[in-house]
Design a protein that fits this description.
Mean pLDDT: 84
Number of strands: 6
Radius of gyration: 26 Å
Helix content: 25-40%
Shape: flat
């Protein structure tokens, strides 16, 4: 553990090595600033350029190729659509830029919870939701249901599937998993970074029907 005072880095080890990283603006070989390799930044820049190129045509009435009475309406819709896309990805990029790093989160934790030495939120999260409900994770395997105390078929298999709304937001995927103890699918949200996808949100550690051996009404 560590915390930062002005001009000092205080750690809880009397000896050893400390690996430091610092914030700076990444530049290329010519010294020009780079942007993060994230979809939100790329899309924000793209739609900003499109919006700027579209505005002069919109002001001169040349944005629509039709001469119908709806030409002005189509032109307005086209221009305002570019504005909406720019605003959406700009806000998304800003949120990612302001997201605290692991080191920032460590400092925030130390500042706000100095009297609480252990802050294992992830362990406590699983403990709270799985205490007396260890069967919940097994319910997502095929063949597991309350009647057989959530014993999955062998070989064990979990089916993850998409729906028409799974890929509405660029860089995110909302997927579904069936639980043998629930009437509707549970969802997980993945977020892409490069060619990899990471778990971003999950809604699977929630209550389901009790197994037959624990249900007095079964």
């Amino acid at each position: 553990e560590y915390f930062i005072k002005p001009g000092w880095l205080v750690v809880n080890k009397p000896k050893g090595f400390v690996k430091l990283s610092y914030k700076a603006i990444a530049t290329d070989e010519r010294g020009y600033p780079l942007i993060p390799d994230l979809t939100s930044y790329q899309e924000a820049i793209y739609w900003y350029v499109v919006m700027k190129l579209t505005f002069p045509k919109f002001m001169m009435g040349k944005l629509s190729n039709t001469n119908s009475k709806y030409a002005a309406k189509y032109a307005s819709q086209t221009y305002f659509y570019t504005q909406q896309q720019w605003n959406f990805y700009r806000n998304q990029a800003y949120a990612e830029a302001m997201m605290p790093t692991a080191g920032d989160m460590e400092n925030i934790k130390n500042e706000w919870n100095r009297l609480l030495p252990e802050m294992d939120f992830d362990k406590q999260f699983f403990k709270d939701r799985l205490t007396d409900q260890q069967y919940v994770p097994f319910s997502y395997f095929e063949g597991a249901k309350p009647a057989n105390d959530y014993r999955p078929d062998e070989p064990s298999r979990i089916t993850v599937f998409a729906d028409p709304y799974s890929f509405q937001n660029e860089g995110y995927a909302k997927l579904n998993i069936n639980s043998g103890g629930a009437d509707s699918p549970r969802q997980i949200v993945l977020r892409s970074k490069g060619n990899q996808w990471f778990l971003w949100e999950q809604y699977i550690l929630v209550g389901i029907r009790k197994p037959a051996s624990q249900d007095p009404w079964a």
